[in-house]
Give the backbone structure.
Amino acid sequence: QVQLVESGGGLVQAGGSLRLSCAASGRTFSSYTMGWFRQAPGKEREFVTAINWSGDRIDYADSVKGRFTISRDNAKNTVYLQMNSLKPEDTAVYYCALKWVGTSRYAYWGQGTQVTVSS
């Protein structure tokens, strides 16, 4: 079993920055991909970004390219999401998720952290 705990959310003005963290614990000795997703009120959850185990493959949603940066520290079992130039439309609950290498489904999810961007 794996537990994921997000932190770093909050309220920020448009144009500001936030850094989210997601710490994994439990059965984390195997290689895994980490992703960030978000869900705004009244909308479906959407993909934001993902990073593979070695960090050499990173994907971003078009809406966040050039503004968000994902990174990871495998020694700490932690993934980060640096969010710059935030916009009101970035307001959402942000979730981190884990999927094992060689699988297609994110099997574990965090509880989410609220990010609110005021205009």
